[in-house]
Design goal:
Largest sheet: 10 strands, mixed
Strand order of the largest sheet: 4-3-5-6-7-12-11-10-9-8
Helix content: 25-40%
Strand content: 15-25%
Order of helices and strands: HHHEEEHEHEHEEHEHHEHEEHE
């Protein structure tokens, strides 16, 4: 049985307006929120939220404050079913719920979605190896998961359509989507500082740090600096793509200046960190606060709950389906979207050990 989803009022209104747009009830420009609110008997806030969803779908384009939105109807050209290769970062990506749901949704839409035979992590984000893989794979379009800047720059210059799910895509001419974690991480960092934490470490994979820190990591470092805390490689330590290197880095951190708070980027590293801390008899949150910047259903089984950043994957899946639909109709689509994220406080954050009375 497929998952049952209860639509919000704005989603219900968006579905109704979408149908009217496709029936060409309005041509050229969309009526304004006041007119639609009066005609439908629905408050303007809900109408505005529904219009934003239609903008995400590419059916409406905002023209600026006080101006009506432009209507962009899908091409009448018959769609072509696409062979979409999914280039995952690592094998575990194929087991994540939203990636599996995305694969199912693409196939349900008539496309043939399949995993590429190799993974980015396995190839060391080597552009030459990625190029060879692309040339050897029969695909009409590519969906790339959590790729480095170099890899996405190469893809952006290719004639094949490509969509970046996560990854360092900002500023590149490439379709993309992902959660907007930056304001949430800034909030988390401020919360830790308010609790007396001065030694806060964020553990992220090399592509998030090399050649320079990504937008999320920069936001973290800037928040530290804004509170007059020293910023160095200590806060964003280096390690390579191996378990041994990750654990060795944790060893070095706790041997010299033990962090009072750890921010871990992904669920696999979170699991490894929890095991490491347990083996070293380092208590959470008594000795170190622990936060993960991603979510997994497995976190629901933790007691106390792990403090983490959560986001809804459904808008991202809808965005990718819209991209595939546009590409299948011969329409160029390079739009990048962000999905709101939120912080789940959990029970793994506490006052910094040396700040307790």
């Amino acid at each position: 049985m497929s998952d049952f989803a209860i639509l919000s009022p704005s989603q219900q209104v968006a579905d109704y307006l979408r149908g009217e747009l496709l029936r060409e009830t309005w041509i050229g420009m969309m009526p304004g929120s006041p007119q639609l609110s009066a005609a439908l008997g629905i408050d303007r806030k809900t109408i505005d939220a529904a219009m934003c969803l239609l903008e995400e779908d590419g059916l409406l384009i905002a023209q600026g404050a006080g101006r009506k939105r432009k209507i962009i109807l899908p091409s009448r050209r018959a769609p072509t079913n696409l062979r979409i290769a999914i280039l995952a970062n690592e094998e575990d990506d194929c087991k994540v719920d939203y990636v599996m749901n995305l694969m199912f949704a693409l196939n349900e839409a008539g496309h043939k979605a399949f995993y590429a035979p190799r993974f980015l992590n396995e190839m060391g984000m080597n552009v030459k190896l990625v190029k060879r893989l692309v040339l050897q794979t029969e695909a009409d379009a590519w969906l790339v998961v959590a790729a480095s800047r170099d890899v996405l720059q190469w893809f952006s210059k290719q004639p094949l359509p490509v969509f970046s799910l996560f990854g360092r895509r900002r500023g590149l001419p490439i379709a993309a989507a992902g959660p907007d974690k930056i304001p949430v991480l800034a909030e988390v960092t401020r919360k830790l500082i308010a609790l007396g934490h001065k030694r806060i470490v964020m553990m992220v994979r090399p592509p998030r740090r090399i050649p320079t820190p990504g937008a999320l990591e920069r936001a973290f470092l800037m928040e530290l600096a804004a509170h007059q805390l020293p910023v160095s490689d200590y806060n964003l330590p280096s390690w390579d793509e191996s378990i041994g290197s990750y654990l060795a880095r944790l060893d070095s951190l706790f041997a010299s200046s033990p962090p009072t708070a750890l921010i871990v980027d992904e669920i696999p590293q979170l699991v490894g960190t929890l095991q490491y801390l347990a083996r070293k008899s380092i208590r959470v949150p008594e000795d170190v606060s622990l936060i993960c910047t991603d979510h997994s259903p497995s976190l629901n089984w933790c007691d106390p709950p792990i403090s983490h950043i959560r986001w809804d994957s459904r808008p991202v899946i809808r965005r990718i389906l819209r991209w595939a639909s546009n590409i299948s109709r011969g329409k160029k689509d390079l739009r990048q979207t962000l999905t709101p994220a939120e912080f789940v406080y959990g029970g793994t954050i506490a006052v910094a050990a040396k700040s307790r009375m």
